Amino acid sequence: MKFNYLKFEKRDKIGILTLDRPNALNALNEDVFKELTGFFNDKETIQTIRALVITGEGKAFIAGADIKAMQEYSTQDGYDFSEIGKGVFDQIANLEIPVIAAINGFALGGGLELALSCDIRVASEKARLGLPEVNLGLIPGFNGTQRLPRLVGAGNAMYLMMLGEGITANEAYQLGIVQKLAKPESVLEETIELAEKIAGKSPNALRLIKKMVHQGVELNFKDAGKMESKEFGRLFKEDQKEREEGINAFLEKRKPNW
Ligand code: CO8
Q1: Residue 258 lies in a domain
Q2: Residues identified as active-site
Q3: Phi, psi of 123 (to 5 degrees)
Q4: End-to-end CA gap in the chain
Q5: Are 136 and 244 found together in one domain?
Q6: What's one Pfam family here (predicted)?
Q7: Which of 7, 63, 102, 251 has the highest count of CB atoms within 10 angstroms of its CB?
């Protein structure tokens, strides 16, 4: 597939998807979302990788939704744009492989919301993160009002959304928005290294961990626990080769071969 605003490369089993609209700090507009939808629908490509890293070209990860494009929006346009973005971010969250954001610079508004739909976030020590929509008379519209409080609690999420000022990567790390800090010059390499480590684990277990975490938060604790027991039980079916290989490899003191 040919893209104008995305670049995709593969390093062995790791896919690297780069938002490539640096003149607008990779701001998200409908064309960018169309390309992202196309990318995530391309199951053939995604089947060839075991983890995906998402990053941004230039000095920003993503500086948010395209403010210029929103200037003349009608009520319907606003609703539609919000739904389009949510659809794309759900595609990220529902991907059956781990997705890691390599936050190389500004991750603001919709850019932070995209990072929040990833499973793990690594950030450059120099990155700034925030939800500045309140300064524009807007609110986060790509599920940021929902994903952020689920990640860091209502108080921290309100603080970020109401203040509308960016925070440093270190503050984001301390809040638990970011899971790992990296040197600015090596954020992508350090994220790929992490992705490679994770991609070396059982793909089936990774898929299930993601499913349990995402679906579990929608359920009450008891039902979520039942869902976990069922999936755990299923791992002991005879055709569950990864479980068999993982346990045998441990007992035979060798590395598993998934
Ligand atoms: N949209 C469009 N263009 C942008 C955006 C953006 N979000 N951010 C930066 N740009 C453009 C600038 O206009 C500028 O373009 P030009 O060269 O043509 O003037 C170029 O990128 C470079 O930016 P700056 O010159 O401003 O670079 P600085 O290093 O001086 O500043 C900042 C960097 C601090 C990141 C600054 O660009 C900035 O504040 N950007 C806006 C950040 C922001 O407010 N983001 C939130 C947007 S709203 C949002 O994301 C809502 C999501 C929910 C939508 C729901 C659907 C309805």
Answers
A1: no
A2: 113, 133
A3: -130, 145
A4: 29
A5: no
A6: ECH_1
A7: 102
The Cα–Cα gap between 229 and 223 comes to 10
Q: Is 64 close to ligand 1, i.e. is its CB under 6 Å away?
A: yes
Q: Which of 174, 199, 224 is at the close of a domain?
A: 199
Q: What is the pLDDT of residues 83-108, one digit of tens each?
A: 999 999 999 999 999 999 999 999 99
User: Which protein residue's CA is at the shortest distance from atom 8 of ligand 1?
Assistant: 63
Residue-wise pLDDT for 15-68, tens only, equals: 999 999 999 999 999 999 999 999 999 999 999 999 999 999 999 999 999 999
The preferred substitution site among 57, 61, 67 for testing ligand 1, maximizing ligand atoms within 8 Å of CB, is 67
What's the domain range around 15?
A: 6-199
The neighbour count for residue 249, using CB atoms within 10 Å, is 14
Cβ(27) – ligand 1 distance below 6 Å = yes
Tell me the two tokens of residue 224.
Answer: 């979520």
| 192 lies in the same domain as 90 | yes
Confirm if 101 and 115 have CB atoms less than 8 A apart.
yes
Q: How far is the CA of 89 from the centre of ligand 1 (A)?
A: 20
Residue 1 inside a domain? The answer is no
Question: What is the number of residues in the chain?
Answer: 258
Q: State pTM to two decimals.
A: 0.97
Reported in sequence order, the residue ranges of the chain that DSSP labels E, i.e. its strands, are 6-11, 14-19, 51-56, 60-62, 99-103, 106-108, 120-124, 128-130, 167-168, 180-182
Going from the Cα of 122 to the center of ligand 1, the distance in angstroms, rounded, reads: 22
Rounded to two decimals, the ipTM of the complex is: 0.98
> Ligand 1 in contact with 109 (CB < 6 A)?
yes
Residue with CA at minimum distance from ligand 1 atom 39: 63
